[in-house]
Amino acid sequence: QLQLVESGGGLVQPGGSLRLSCAASGFPLDYYSIGWFRQAPGKEREGVSCSTSTGGSINYADSVKGRFTISKDNAKGMVYLQMNSLKPEDTAVYYCAATPDPLTVDQRMSVRRYDYWGHGTQVTVSS
Predict the structure, then answer these.
(1) Which of 42, 51, 87, 95 is deepest in the core (most CB within 10 A)?
(2) What are the residues facing 6 on neighbouring strands?
(3) CA 1 → CA 17, 52, 101, distances in Å?
(4) H-assigned helices in 6-114
(5) How far is 44 from 66, CA to CA, in rounded Å?
């Protein structure tokens, strides 16, 4: 049974850091593209960062470039999102998602392109 479980969220002050983790089980992570998405209250879910199956191509939303870093450890079945210089506007529920389908660059940050989702972890940036 394919499963994604996020962890690592919490309350952090502006300028702080968090590292989110996503534990993948029931499927070979090295054959799946992975994305991190977030959804703030009253807003649509949006792409934050994504990685191809090999990690050879990575994309970031403009709003997080230079602050967030995605990484995969296929051997451990883990995906990470290191978030630095956090801002109040980063407050949201963060989800990891996976798909075995090859995605074009334009598709990688699209919510509807991902087949499997975790339940999310809350990140709150506030003083």
Answers:
(1) 95
(2) 22
(3) 32, 22, 18
(4) none
(5) 23
Q: Residue 54 corresponds to which tokens in the numbers above?
A: 């090999």
**Nearest one of 16, 20, 18, 15 to 5, comparing CA atoms:** 20
Per-residue pLDDT of the chain (127 residues; tens, 9 = 90+): 889 999 999 999 999 999 999 999 998 888 999 999 999 999 999 999 999 888 888 999 999 999 999 999 989 999 999 999 999 999 999 999 999 988 888 899 999 999 999 999 999 999 9
Three-class SS of residue 112?
A: helix
Alpha carbon distance 49, 82 (integer Å): 11
Closest to 96 measured CA to CA, from 17, 40, 33: 33
Distance CA 95, CA 63 (A): 17
